[in-house]
Batch of 2 targets.
Target 1
Amino acid sequence: MLAIEQGQGGIVVVTGRLDAAEAPKAQAFLDGVRGEVTLDCSGLDYISSAGLGVLLKTQKRLLAGHGKLRLTGLKSHLRDIFTYSGFDQLFEIDPAPR
């Protein structure tokens, strides 16, 4: 199950599992964000390749509009996924929520 919502200070908070079943829900929400967006992943427990695709599509769209997607609060096992896949080179990844 995935929950994604606008948090305080414009931060987008995501919790649960971002997998193929939840990817359309996440994409629909993220399609509405603009500019520089911080995604608080401290409550995210799992991300699949479909979830990575959602983040990549969102990043490309934001970069085209001179924005970006910043990730924060990734748990160590998720940070490993980003590192092994090379996605750590595509996103600014902060250690904790801003």
Target 2
Amino acid sequence: MNATRPALARIRWYWPLQILVWHGVALFNLLFYWRAAPGWQIVAVCWWAGLSGILCTHLWRAALRRRPHWLGRQMHWKYIGPSLMLLTAVQTASMTLAFAVLRPMGAMHGVSWLPGALIFWFLVLTLWTLLYMAVLSVRRANRYEAEALRLELYVKDTELRALQAQVNPHFFFNSMNSVRALIYEDQHAAARMIDQLAALMRYALQSGQADTVTLAAEMEAVQAYLAIEKIRFEERMRVSVRIEAGLEQVRIPPMALQTLVENAVKYGVETSAGGSEIRIVARRVDGMVRIEIANAGAIVPFADSTKVGLVNTRKRLALALGADARLDLSENGGWVRATLTVPTLEAA
């Protein structure tokens, strides 16, 4: 999963930001004290304070992680306030120890400096806590967004499986009607048709768990279906296939092309006394792959048609291949054309 995330999202930012922030605090203190006590001692004192700040906030972070409810939707200041005061006292004591040991300004006298130091470190540690809460909020929002995306993909996959489950019974119902129509006329032809149907059932079962299949695999299923219908319609059905070279591995939803060919046979060959030619053409057009299935005839609303095939094909195209994939149905010059337009995605 990490390999698919953006590079910035894969970086662990905690320690780089910790070091950067506390080096910034150390540099701020150095600029503040340098005029009064220039020298290596004040440099050491300021970076001592930075290192102790890193230690304090790291322990503070560990405490917050064990008590996530302190930084929930609302900050629980009744717990956070006293904790920050304790951290302020520890950080101020550390800074005082550094001044006492390294003596950049000589011996320490009085405590007039103490209120200012306490206020400064309280503000620094409070700001650190607020920034930490902001980072947690962003991470929490990203996690919720990722979870929503995961659920969206799950719903998409479930819907796709449901649509495929509708297509397969629809297809096999029509195929069994073809077998039934032939079995009383030519038993040998009916046997060959059953063999082809068995091949189609095997393909449907194997491809039913996949979102997409290759155009080559789908065309094998189409050829098996056409072989079934050729036995039934004989010379009334004429088929021409032109697949542009290099398109064999293009991805399409399983049974999508077969469904369109089935409709071309049903409404082009079966309804015409003279039959029809079925033309299947696949080629590249404007960076996309266009697959056209054409039959002689006209677009007529059939009262007994459930239109499950066309409706499901459109939905499955959008779910499996995105908004760029589409199915268009048109009539021109006595020909009905169903055109699949899909991205040039190829099998890995």
